[in-house]
UniProtKB/TrEMBL annotation:
Residues 226-413, 721-885 form the Peptidase M16 C-terminal domain. GO terms for molecular function: metal ion binding; metallopeptidase activity. Residues 73-192 form the Peptidase M16 N-terminal domain. This is Insulinase family protein. GO terms for biological process: proteolysis. InterPro entries: Metalloenz_LuxS/M16, Pept_M16_N, Peptidase_M16, Peptidase_M16_C. Belongs to the peptidase M16 family. SUPFAM superfamilies: LuxS/MPP-like metallohydrolase. Pfam families: Peptidase_M16, Peptidase_M16_C. Keywords: Hydrolase, Metalloprotease, Protease, Zinc.
Length: 965
């Protein structure tokens, strides 16, 4: 097992070459009795080869379990406990009970005192909300624990606690009274236009089925009328051994995991016979149905401020399948069929069609419906044209076979994805493996090893013929009934009859969106420039990484790792980010985020970029930070050189296609009004801008500002920014260092020298807003019971005080724990209040501590009062040693886990070739985060949590504005 202490950078390199050591179970440890290696329950009735890494057991009481050894991340065990009951198991009077019970289970149970779940798991090294969590869906409730540093005592205690939670939660009146406000707060904070649209669409698509009106959150009426007796009855009915599956995956002998599972669950008994699951229903054709695909219910949903959207579904009854190899071969052909249609739909949108985006996807929904769902975002108010154009593309796909070249293009993408899964199967995190198995149980199917999936795919390549894909496409668009929904911001724009007529209207097949599948070779692309060898290649001094310097000023960091086979990350930092823009050009910032990559490079437009990536693992993420721009991609060893070419070519020979810019303008304009619909929307739109003293470069541009931009202006603003230095390239992962340097020399070493940003165009970003005792008030146009509040204190920035910035994160976590306890656990006023620290490394100022919550308008003053009270107490008295340990313990475990991946070190060393402070402060990282004292935190709080410097914001419903006039 790996050490529980943070490894030094040198030790990390040594660990990667060390063999894995298996720790056997001590002879005295209990042995599992109910493992069934010859009869794995999840594979019964299927010819799918058994994944031998899993061990399956089944206890006499009906509890099934699966265990597996997995060392990613080291020392962690992930446990999932699935109850085969969700919101579809509720009666009309019980709506919301499955989710409410999920909350109560964490409140108090046999081995856990009231309200102690969060500190108990924190003492065991797990963070609340990420390492310990649960989810309720229509068909299941799943409890999740990712336990770091899973030593025998901690693992035993965790399984014991979980068994008490599942088997014997304390469903008392006092606990119900404590948790009900939290659940209602969650419902309130997740309500709004988006939720109303989802509910209306669900009730339309699944009319006549339980799924139509049983969202897991429930209704206010049923939640408020819940009693301990009624909730207990739901628990006794569904929380039973035969409804329970336990999955445990981690860096422990699986025999030990099986024995622990049996120890705490084998004696679980519930009186009586398990009830049969209710009939979930099935989609029915309308009474007057004639011909194929009859159109049934339609719905027009009017939501002011929301962009128009069309969705329709071709629905079929869900049926329990025999999950065998042949069934999965059929799914693979289905997948190719959908990929071809979606590529054509995207091509139509890119060419200036009537819609911004559209997609078609087959989904099995909650064991209730097998459906093909089509979603469309019209460009303007002519929703009928958008619907017609999308249906015309689909009509072509179901009448004429695709070309073999189209099929082969999608097959190449599948092949690289499946091969990559095999190559990187050793990197799969235990939590993901557990989630995958739980999902398989939920949909009543089996699981397959990556090798099995790849072999099935390769051995059926001759079945991907145009005729077969056409047949599967036709099946995907045949159903019992078609139902549709239209979202519009304008009342009276359309009726349900209008939508039904449009869906019934016969369209002619349109094959103009069929796109060439002709391959493009990197060998045919122009060179970046004259290759240049590095002028310096030397060790950086940490991790065994190397620093590469070229004569043109480009610097690079490369680090070869051997614990992540095939996985490589390439990151390019260049220019000055937001500081490189003038305030007058601020609207082009958002457009650049959306359109810069799509506008192409050299001879490659957006379609050609897609085509050249066929059969490769290439990416092109782009982000804009305070002081730099970033290109980034997760790739593989074989594609590193091509990935470097794409990034360098974007800097050396950018292309300026207008269509991506016009599409970005349309997307930005369509979404703007929706921000006003909720308090959280206002926060998303305005908070960063306000925290930077209304600097236009942090603002979300208005539709008028966007419409004033042009494709020519886009080029004028962005072209010089792509030429500016400094340029830093990082290549970390499973690489050959010499080959990587050679690829760098052909690409970034061949660039012309980056230009320096003229001093008179470096515009400093505005600082923090002036302190205010009375909050700045903004108003949203959504539900009257929704509000949000933010309190911020200015801190600092820059890499010279990196240790202080890390300790500020600890202060924020302590503050967050106190706020969570006061505002959520005790008062139920907010579902997820939080405190965070922002410290920009590229600037010497601009940082802040921020306390944030969504709540009801009536609770805004109390939140501000409570946050101010906590801030003052931390500044005066600091945290106790115990509450500090509740933060630093999980932080230590988090660092232990994430440091084993190369992206952790890439993040820590980003900018190190330009700024030596980042290397200088790297050795103190663990100490800064975990060996901090209460006095240090008190001192930081006294320095920064100053009442006279605090800035307050409240976002209230517009009705409040009228009341205040």
């Amino acid at each position: 097992m790996a050490s529980a202490m943070l490894l030094s950078p040198a030790a990390v390199q040594a660990q990667q070459a060390a063999p894995t050591v298996s720790v056997a179970v001590e002879p005295s440890a209990p042995q599992p009795q109910y493992l069934k290696p010859d009869d794995p329950w999840i594979y019964r009735g299927t010819d799918i080869p058994v994944d031998k890494e899993w061990l399956f057991g089944e206890m006499p009481n009906g509890v099934r379990y699966a265990v597996r050894r997995n060392g990613v991340p080291p020392d962690q065990v992930s446990i999932r406990i699935r109850i085969d009951a969700g919101s579809l198991n509720e009666t009309d009077d019980e709506r919301g009970y499955a989710h409410l019970l999920e909350h109560l289970t964490f409140r108090q149970s046999k081995y856990m005192a009231e309200g102690q779940a969060i500190p108990i798991w924190q003492r065991l090294g797990a963070t609340f909300g990420s390492d310990t969590n649960a989810e309720t869906t229509p068909t299941q409730t799943v409890f999740k624990l990712d336990l770091p540093n899973a030593r025998p005592a901690a693992l035993d205690e965790s399984m014991k606690l979980l068994s008490g939670m599942i088997r014997e939660p304390t469903l008392s009146a006092s606990n119900l009274a404590a948790d009900l406000p939290i659940v209602l707060a969650e419902k309130r904070e997740n309500s709004g236009a988006g939720t109303r649209i989802a509910e209306a669409t669900r009730s339309t698509f699944f009319h006549g089925q339980r799924l139509a009106d049983r969202a897991p959150i429930g209704t206010i009426k049923t939640l408020k009328t819940a009693t301990p007796e009624s909730v207990r009855a739901f628990h006794q009915k569904w929380y039973r051994p035969e409804n329970t599956v336990i999955v445990a995956v981690g860096d422990v002998d699986p025999q030990q995991l099986a024995a622990l599972t049996e120890e705490y669950f084998a004696d679980w008994k519930v009186a009586g016979k398990a009830p049969a699951a209710p009939d979930f229903g099935k989609p029915e054709a309308p009474d007057d149905a004639k011909g194929p695909n009859p159109v049934g219910r339609t719905r027009v949903i009017v939501e002011p401020g929301q962009p128009r959207g069309i969705s329709y579904a071709i629905l079929r009854p869900w049926e329990q399948v025999t999950d065998n190899l042949e069934y999965n071969r059929g799914l693979l052909i289905d997948g190719i069929a959908q990929a071809i249609i979606n590529r054509r739909l995207e091509a139509r949108a890119r060419s200036g069609g009537s819609y911004l985006m559209a997609s078609a996807q087959q989904r099995d929904v909650s064991r209730s419906v097998d459906g093909t769902f089509v979603s469309i975002t019209p460009l303007g108010d002519d929703w009928q044209a958008a619907l017609h154009d999308v249906r015309a593309v689909i009509a072509d796909a179901i009448t004429t076979p695709p070309t073999q070249e189209e099929i082969d293009r999608e097959l190449a993408a599948y092949n690289v994805a499946f091969a990559n899964q095999v190559e990187q199967r050793a990197l799969l995190a235990g939590g993901q493996l557990g989630d995958d198995l739980v999902q398989a149980v939920d949909i009543r199917e089996s699981i397959a090893a990556p090798e099995t999936i790849l072999n099935v795919f390769k051995n059926m390549r001759d079945r991907f013929t145009p005729e077969a894909v056409l047949e599967h496409t036709q099946r995907l668009f045949q159903g019992t009934v078609v139902r549709g929904a239209l979202v519009t911001p304008v009342a009276g724009e359309a009726s349900e009859a209008d939508l039904r007529k449009a869906l019934n209207h016969k369209v002619e097949a349109d094959g103009n969106s069929r796109i060439s599948a002709e391959s493009i070779s990197f060998a045919d692309l122009p060179p970046i420039g004259e290759p240049a060898d590095p002028v310096e290649r030397a060790p950086l001094g940490v991790l065994g990484s190397e620093k590469i310097t070229y004569a043109n000023g480009v610097k690079a960091l490369i680090w070869r790792t051997n614990n992540e086979p095939g996985r490589v990350t390439v990151r390019v930092r260049f220019g000055h980010g937001l500081q490189g823009f003038s305030p007058e050009d601020a609207a082009y910032i958002e457009l650049g985020q959306m359109a810069l990559v799509g506008s192409g490079l050299g001879p490659l437009g957006q379609e050609e970029l897609d085509r050249i990536s066929t059969g490769r693992m290439l990416g092109f993420d782009f982000s804009i930070e305070d002081g730099h721009f970033t290109f980034e991609a997760r790739t593989r060893s074989a594609d590193v050189a091509d990935q470097l070419y794409l990034f360098a070519a974007k800097l050396a020979m950018p292309r300026w296609d207008a269509n991506p810019v016009e599409r970005a303008k349309a997307a930005s304009t369509l979404s703007y009004d929706s921000y006003n619909a909720t308090a959280s929307g206002i926060l998303s739109r305005d908070l960063n801008w306000l925290l930077h003293n209304r600097d236009p470069r942090y603002a979300t541009p208005t539709p008028a500002q966007i419409q004033a931009t042009t494709a020519e202006g886009f080029r004028e603003v962005w072209e010089p920014l792509l030429k500016q230095g400094p340029v830093e390239v990082m290549v970390f992962g499973d690489i050959d260092p010499d080959q990587t340097v050679a690829a760098l020399s052909r690409t970034f070493g061949a660039l012309p020298p980056p230009t320096a940003l003229p001093g008179d165009t470096v515009t400093e970003l505005d600082g923090f807003p002036a302190a205010n005792d009375d909050p700045l008030i903004l108003y949203h146009q959504g539900d009257k019971d929704q509000a949000a509040v933010a309190i911020a204190w200015p801190t600092g920035g820059g890499s010279d005080r990196l240790p202080e910035s890390r300790k500020l994160e600890i202060l924020a976590d302590v503050f967050s724990n106190r706020l969570l306890n006061a505002v959520r656990e005790k008062e139920g006023a907010s579902y997820a209040p939080q405190v965070g620290s922002n410290w920009p490394l590229d600037m010497n100022s601009g940082g802040h501590l921020l306390a944030l919550a969504q709540l009801s308008p009536a609770n805004v003053p109390a939140f501000i009062q409570e946050a101010d009270k906590i801030a003052a107490d931390l500044a005066t008295n600091g945290p106790t040693a115990d509450e500090l340990a509740l933060v630093t313990g999980p932080m230590r475990q988090l660092i232990n886990r994430i440091q084993t991946g190369h992206t952790f070190w890439m993040n820590e060393l980003a900018g190190a070739t330009i700024d030596p402070q980042r290397v200088r402060h790297l050795p103190s990282l663990l100490n800064d985060y975990t060996n901090v004292t209460p006095e240090e935190i008190r001192s930081l709080a006294a320095k920064y949590l100053v009442k006279d410097k605090a800035w307050h914001l409240a976002i209230l419903p517009k009705d409040t504005a009228a009341a205040n006039r």
